[in-house]
Specification:
single chain, mainly alpha, two-stranded antiparallel ribbon, two-stranded antiparallel sheet, 6 strands, about 5% strand
Length: about 300
């Protein structure tokens, strides 16, 4: 029983990370019907922002000292939001009226661009991510170990989820997002600044990716320019599983995917090398039997 409880804690913690990243995926898709394949690489960039802010760096001849984590992490999230805005403004907005396949190919191109820029700027060698002491403490309940990070990750994810839910369903900007998701032309006639709302969606999605990326870097304290590929794909699977376009669905899908992945490794340790394949199996299964996901809805074309 202790072993099962331990694995459930690990599964909820990992699933919360997938959920946080998947919410950003699903928000962009919900507004633009665009699968932003660069989302995982935006998450990767956030970890490097946080890394250099914590460890200190030099820029244009000026040496900037290291910052405490409670200052560095929010700044890294803001910088990631700026990156998301820049990607939308420079790469996606010019293709707003183009066929969807053009936007999809652009998203793949932006993903490759970020990965290779990361290798050029940051170097291809992995870097150890410094984890603050607050996130390294371990508590024990009998034989069950409770790392503070495993407790904080679901809590922080829940806070982000509630804040996102409030913005989408209780604010004018959220109403505009939901209106644009149904019909991008009609909101223009009603005076809604569509470009501003779409930019806000990208900023919010990037900030959520940054939160997930920084916690992922603390959970597995090593970062590299290609680290966003697999978490990004799994977050996409989580979004499809829960119902892409649904914020709550993305959270549920992430939790399910994290639990299934951890329990698979725990119950079948000899097949642990196939843990990443579970996500692809779930994706194929859900697309075959319930393409709208668990609580997703079918949108008109």
């Amino acid at each position: 029983m202790d072993v099962l409880f331990q694995q459930l804690i690990n599964g909820v913690s990992l699933g919360s990370l997938y959920a946080l990243i998947a919410i950003g995926y699903t928000m962009v898709y919900g507004v633009l019907r665009l699968i932003n394949f660069a989302h995982g690489d935006v998450m990767m960039a956030s970890t490097y922002f946080a890394f250099y802010l914590i460890t200190g760096f030099s820029l244009l001849g000026f040496v900037l000292p290291n910052m405490p984590w409670y200052v560095a992490f929010p700044i890294a999230m803001v910088l990631t939001g700026v990156l998301g805005f820049s990607i939308e403004r420079l790469a996606y907005r010019p293709l707003r009226s183009a066929p969807r396949i053009s936007a999809l190919m652009t998203a793949i191109g932006v993903s490759f661009l970020l990965e290779n820029l990361g290798i050029v700027i940051f170097g291809g060698r992995p870097k150890g991510f410094p984890t603050p002491n607050l996130f390294t403490e371990i508590f024990y309940i009998k034989e069950v170990s409770l790392p503070s990070l495993s407790i904080l990750i679901p809590l922080i994810t829940l806070i982000f989820l509630v804040a996102t839910f409030y913005l989408v369903y209780r604010t004018k900007s959220g109403i505009a997002m939901r209106a644009i998701s149904r019909d991008i032309e009609t909101p223009k006639l009603m005076g809604i600044n569509v470009n501003r709302i779409i930019s806000l969606t990208f900023i919010l999605g990037s900030v959520l990716a940054a939160g997930g990326g920084i916690m992922l870097a603390m959970r597995y304290p090593q970062i590299n320019p290609l680290m966003g590929i697999m978490p990004g794909i799994k977050a996409f699977v989580a979004a499809v599983l829960g119902g892409i376009g649904s914020v709550v669905g993305a959270a549920i899908g992430g939790l399910i995917l994290g639990l299934v992945e951890i329990l698979f490794v725990a119950l079948l340790p000899s097949y642990a090398g196939y843990r990443d394949a579970i996500a692809f199996f779930i994706l194929i299964f859900i697309l075959l039997f319930k393409p709208t996901g668990i609580i997703g809805e079918k949108f008109p074309d």
